[in-house]
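Example (one chain per record):
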Amino acid sequence: MGATKRSIKGNNGRARQSRLLKRIGLVLGVCLGVIIVVELSGGSGRRRRRRGPRNLNSELFKLRRRAHDAVQQQQEQDAEDEEEESQILTKDQKIDLVLSASVHLVGIEPVRHQIEGSNGPGSYSGITGEFCKLNWAAHKESPSSTPMFRDLVGKSPDCKSNRFHLDLNEIVAASKRHDEDVKADSTLADGTIDGIDASLLAVPRAIQPTGVVFHESRCGSTLVANSLAAFDPTSNRVYSESAPPIAALRICGDTYSRCSRATAAALLRDVMYMMGRTDDPNERNLFFKIQSVGTRFIDVFTEAFPHTPYMFVYRDPVQVMMSHLDHAHMEQSNCVRPRKDPPKIVVDLVERHGKSVTELSHEEYCAAHLASICDSALGGMKRPGDGGSNGNSMGWPVNYQDLPDKLYEVIPHHFGVPLGETERDRIAQISGMYSKGRGNKAHEWKDDSERKEERATDAIRGACKIFLDETFAELEGRAAAAAAADGRGGAIGGKEGFAGEET
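Predicted structure:
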């Protein structure tokens, strides 16, 4: 065991030697302090008579107390250091934790500027993955109080001190080999579990994405994510605005100057594969809600997952704008801050309207920012060959005002997950709560659409007319077409087996 510890620490006892030297120095310092006090106290008759033996004892007592406290603090620090050293893992131990799906991918980071792999477009290298054990129970038990991925990480004790990094390419390849071996072994057993092939419930295994949520921002997407988690918390895993997918989507830059779209798609596939790995045999469905700006890279997603259904949540332009700008400091709004270094997609959109970014008001830039997101979603849904059956898109636009009722159609008919009365009731229940009810913010949800309309300024309405109204109308048309196709029993995307199903 001792040999193992030395190999884990990898420092040949240098930390222990350092602590010993600190202790020796501390003891010598205390002794020197005692000598100095005694010498000063007894150095002259006048000083001794003035202070007296009682004062000397008091000084010695204080010095001993300080020495005792210093030694105790050093001992506590030594204990913390030893505990930290005992938790340092070898590379093999890290790999074992990942292969067993005991830890989860929580971040990715390029270690060099070159992303493209040696095999050219569609390959990548130089990406590290960050892993720690997520406390999924915190999210499954209360999605509204743990609404975002950062909240889940914050409620995961292991992620505070035990994160580690591995080369992503290598660990993905090892995980896929491991999962194939597990699957091969499990198929030898004849039988089913709850009517499902036992091999599909073998663990560890990777769940393929069931559905993905893109959104405009400030439009009810967190309500959607919470509903996906709540209607069947045992079976569902939901990543709400997690870090790895958005990093993969944006890895090549806004104009793909660092690498190709095919490379970003390959990275996204591997990221979602790792995030879908589970050691829980009950988990069957995997959902992602992507950050709003990730919609601009929807072409990367559709290349990576051409047969995975997604929805795009949007809202009346004036109401979205008011949600962003209804405060004193517009320049600090999420939709305005990027104007200091505007992305090319916004610059191009503004120029198509005969304007330049520099001349825009805050309201106009916010509208252009939101329009770039909505236009990207429309572009993704219009793109031919994105995997939809019978030429239909895999995307389903959903207006905020139709939530949560529209989920009763999208989940079974588009995402392919049946809903019973119990699941419907759970969605209705969580829809009545404020979706971002962290801590003391938990309260009943109240619609504020009418209030936003009443408070909207002429500048906001004018900006919407320039940049957003036309796109909004087109989204409404596609949403109506999707609902009509669903009502006829047609397939919205690729979930034909569930189209027209009674729910």
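Caption: The two ends are 59 Å apart (CA to CA).
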